[in-house]
């Protein structure tokens, strides 16, 4: 059956369940706007499910868990890289853009994954890593050998030779990891640009043949039936054509660290936006010619809010990706933030966002500590309530629906994250990204049900004995059940399309309303501090109104269905509530 039809049926069924009557979305809308209120669930394939007992997650493992997404209410997933790679940076260093990493399976496994996902109405987004290839990629090897057609696939420069015989790079650009961004190649007798490790040479996007090659890669995967791309590290794609030195930042005296320079010639160059606009055209053309749901593009880049907004569309209104990831819940707020800080950063995105676009909220990913470790384990449910009741798109990193925690206590011997290894035995622990990448905790069986191997690529967090999906499915209340009920709630028109009205109640508590004509208003209420609060919302809520509780966290004294009085609502430390306002007739 047609994916869209399945989606429509699923949607209508849930709406009937929630509302007691039928809101049939128009088929056309469902097609074009399917992504606008979607929950995108990030799968870290290496840690999700191992099917062959080698201790490493794989594609067949993901396929075997697709039903889990359907049961949870997730209809779109994005996969961190699965391409062939020497795995120096766990797949962010690609040696063949059109093949699957053998540890993860084969192209046939991928076809099966897509077919099964389609059957279940789940869309698949792939990670696309254009900033560089691996130095093992045949393109690079050919470029080193100056094979015709490949000479300029990468950014090659002579640099200069000092009188005493020392070679110096063409300019002062620095690698994100450490030291010069230029690596000398003996065979070709030139420097190549690499903004990450020496094994990750930057592709030269000023060469039309490179653009064509990457377009072909995109079409290869689109033809396999994916719904779009998540594009990695977009701010690094282009560098200044004149190779000008970057000015000193003045914030550090260490000439080897990235922050020594102000990166005005290597980040967020105007051409980055043009390339994304080109890819957007490619995707739109593809959708137009092939039919089916809109193929979309979401981009990763840590940048200022003004720079990010230009990815949505530029000053001339030319469209870029459907949305650039909003990392504010990771980069701007933390365990010490006040209620006003939260509201400020939510509003900032909404205010800066150009008209006609859709907001998005990233609560976690494979590069940052988990929610339970950033905000505290008590905040897990409240943060999911926040994520799921804001306007627009929600992005969940695998395991966050269970409230998984970082496993910081990974030994030096077991550490595999490249930057952590480079940092050395004494300081790896604070910067390592391994703690948030440990295997998914499915059950209390061996290796949390992730693998039957004696050795998993990263250790399983020992807390899996209690903290696992099966326990949470069986418990009367659990983080998972809260998450599931929030996903169901998202089918309500008021959450899809309602206005957003926030209120800072005091420095510890904030609230926001979602309102839509003809629908019950929803209210989300969050206590972000460690003390019990008694709040009075009479100024914020139109009277008279009856308040009934829709979603509560696992530790709450409130229950779903409870009636509350606007003049006095008690919130436990870090508690969140989702409340429905029922107008008195
Ligand atoms: C990349 O993988 C594809 C399989 O899709 C294979 O046909 C091709 O030969 C590989 N390319 C290189 C350069 O190894
Ligand atoms: C780079 O060096 C080579 C060999 O010394 C020389 O032939 C070439 O002209 C140089 N290229 C530039 C752009 O200076
Ligand atoms: C050559 O000169 C440069 C610049 O003065 C200096 O940094 C470098 O150490 C010298 N190299 C040798 C081998 O003397
Ligand atoms: C998209 O289609 C338009 C119209 O056919 C064409 O001019 C343009 O080159 C195409 N762009 C891409 C990137 O495929
Ligand atoms: C929060 O504040 C405490 C106490 O000042 C401090 O130790 C901690 O590092 C802060 N956390 C963050 C993420 O800034
Ligand atoms: C950390 O790991 C070491 C070695 O495996 C173990 O002895 C210790 O108990 C662990 N500590 C915590 C807090 O888990
Ligand atoms: C796992 O460990 C057990 C006990 O140490 C051993 O008998 C078994 O052969 C090991 N299995 C594998 C696949 O290495
Ligand atoms: C509500 O949905 C309609 C139809 O999809 C759309 O045109 C409108 O812009 C949406 N309103 C809001 C506030 O998002
Ligand atoms: C919150 O307060 C309680 C009681 O004072 C204390 O035990 C707990 O550690 C605190 N939690 C956080 C996350 O600060
Ligand atoms: C933003 C970013 O870091 N993007 C990727 C570019 O390449 C490096 C090195 O592989 C990766 O670590 C990044 O994830």
From TrEMBL:
It is an enzyme of class 3 (hydrolase). Its EC number is 3.2.1.20. GO terms for biological process: carbohydrate metabolic process. Pfam families: Alpha-amylase. Residues 1-20 form the signal peptide. It comes from the Eukaryota. Keywords: Glycoprotein, Glycosidase, Hydrolase, Signal. Residues 42-437 form the Glycosyl hydrolase family 13 catalytic domain. One of its GO terms (molecular function) is alpha-1,4-glucosidase activity. It catalyses: Hydrolysis of terminal, non-reducing (1->4)-linked alpha-D-glucose residues with release of alpha-D-glucose. PANTHER family: ALPHA-AMYLASE FAMILY MEMBER (PTHR10357), NEUTRAL AND BASIC AMINO ACID TRANSPORT PROTEIN RBAT (PTHR10357:SF179). Belongs to the glycosyl hydrolase 13 family. This is alpha-glucosidase. It comes from Drosophila ananassae (Fruit fly). The gene is Dana\Mal-B1.
